[in-house]
Amino acid sequence: TINETFTIRGKDKIVSQKQKITMYYKDSRKVKFIVYGLNQITVRIGAYSSIVNVKNNIATFKIPALKPGTYAIEATGKSLYAKTGLVVKHVLSLAKVKVKHSARKLTLTATLKTGKTPLKYKQVVFRFNNVKYTKKTNSKGIAKLTVKSTTLKKLKTGSRITYKASYGKDSVKRTVKVLK
Asked: Most buried pick, 46, 69, 102, 169, via CB within 10 A?
């Protein structure tokens, strides 16, 4: 499916273009450029560059898998130029927690959703105190990791602990102070 359309026409003129394209991490999106008078255009997104053939005045470009962040899509050909923004959103969210040295257990919760749709049965990698744990999401897109009290008792009160959740190239990192 083609999601966005741009028009490049005449010498150094851009007739119309969308402001920004928004997509979630691991979405597959295509951008359609309507180009007059050229056989090929070059499309750049960050460090990624591709030469796209123009067929019947239409050049279709598939956006590659990108880490969450903001990018610029640039299309060039001879003296023609078009530019627009691309925002890749996180699909992973990680709940904030309080780490207590004296707690019986600690539960880390990560949620995988594209908009309102949960990503079911996907693998999420947790890192707590530099130890790697792997969990799968449930039917609601939630992955939970329970850290036992034996691990929590080894932490020093007042020290800062980093915990992280990642799904592919999408990762969320949090730092918290260990309480008594």
From this structure: 46
